[in-house]
Specification:
The protein has 12 helices and 8 strands. The chain is an alpha/beta fold. The radius of gyration is 19 Å and the shape is globular.
Length: about 350
């Protein structure tokens, strides 16, 4: 199918290839594990607001310790369209919502352009959410430490958002706020990306996947549907970010461990057909915080382990720190740091 084949992954430029090893040495799996353990409790503004405040304090403190300028962004909205955070997650309208997004800034000296790297810090009720999405927050904190001593031509924004689990509410507010302050060059969104399985048939696929992505489906089939890949979802306006990140990660963990997927709704001609006949497939690609960026026209990618298509603990009380792969999480941190440096120099 047109537009669905994976881009060719090339080796990193020699300078960044050498820098990759140096950056990887800065990433600590011990710190990643400790940060996940430090937030090992359900966090939900509707059902456990005190724990959300506790998490806010932990995140802000870690970002400040890494030398970033931090800020809390409170928001209140009425008649908010969202979804339930339990049961079938069906659409609902919230009469009033109040939440808090957190940002950490490394400002540029003479540019209003900004790259955003984001992870939501809320969980569904009753789940500690180690994979969804505590590990992603821990990755963001570790990224702040790795990039601590770098100076950038363009502003870098690290953000943790509230209320993703009820419909990307916090990220929608964040995009509006940041768009008023910066020219957003792109966004990298961390979402459920630390669960791996090396067992055959541990990777499921949504209906219609093989029709839309024959190359990727063939690769997964030839590897026995082993759930050990990192998936990168993108629209074509973010292709350079997606390929750049994938090249960086492939340099560390190998090309077989990275799968690129252009979101089906963005594929010319075919996208319209898919919206009519494969809506269930389409919606799987727009369930996370990259969606508000895409709606605003910001080039955005999502990095994920595919969530409920792999992790049996997804949205359950069993989504705990001991189920995660901290080596892959560390590799994603390093690849994101390399990608940030590459984008800044482009």
């Amino acid at each position: 199918m047109v537009g669905t084949a994976e881009p060719i992954l090339l080796p990193l430029e020699s300078t960044l290839g050498k820098r990759a090893a140096s950056i990887m040495s800065l990433v600590s799996t011990t710190r990643l594990r400790q940060d996940v353990l430090s937030m090992n409790y359900p966090r939900n503004r509707l059902h456990s607001p005190k724990d959300m405040v506790k998490a806010e304090g932990f995140i802000i403190s870690a970002l400040q310790d890494a030398g970033w300028q931090t800020k809390r962004h409170s928001f209140s909205i009425r008649q908010a369209n969202g979804v339930l955070d339990y049961g079938d997650f069906s659409p609902t309208v919230y009469s009033e919502l109040s939440g808090v997004n957190l940002t950490a800034i490394k400002p540029a000296e003479a540019s209003n352009d900004a790259l955003v790297i984001e992870a939501h810090y809320d969980t569904v009720r009753m789940s500690p959410g180690a994979d969804d999405n505590t590990a992603s927050v821990a990755a963001l904190l570790e990224l702040a430490r790795v990039l601590k001593d770098y100076k950038f031509k363009h502003t870098v924004v690290l953000a943790t958002c509230d209320m993703e689990e009820i419909g990307c509410i916090g990220a929608t507010q964040l995009v509006k706020q940041l768009a008023n302050e910066y020219k957003l060059r792109g966004a990298i969104v961390f979402e459920t990306m630390a669960y791996l399985s090396h067992k055959p048939n541990s990777q499921a696929l949504p209906p219609g996947f093989g029709f839309v992505y024959p190359d990727q489906a063939s690769r997964l089939r030839n590897r026995g549907y082993v759930g050990d890949t990192t998936v990168v979802i993108y629209h074509n306006n973010a292709r350079s970010i997606a390929v750049g990140f994938s090249e960086s990660l492939a340099h560390i963990v190998g090309a077989d461990s990275v799968v690129l997927l252009r979101a089906p709704g963005d594929i010319p001609v075919l996208g319209r057909l898919l919206r009519t006949f494969f809506y269930s497939l389409i919606r799987q690609f727009y369930r996370a915080n990259h969606y508000p960026f895409l709606v605003a026209g910001v080039p955005a990618i999502q990095i994920t382990d595919s969530g409920n298509f792999r992790n049996p603990n997804y949205h359950k009380v069993t989504d705990t720190p001991d189920t995660l792969d901290y080596d892959r999480l560390a590799s994603i941190v390093a690849a994101t740091a390399i990608t940030t440096l590459r984008l800044d120099s482009a």
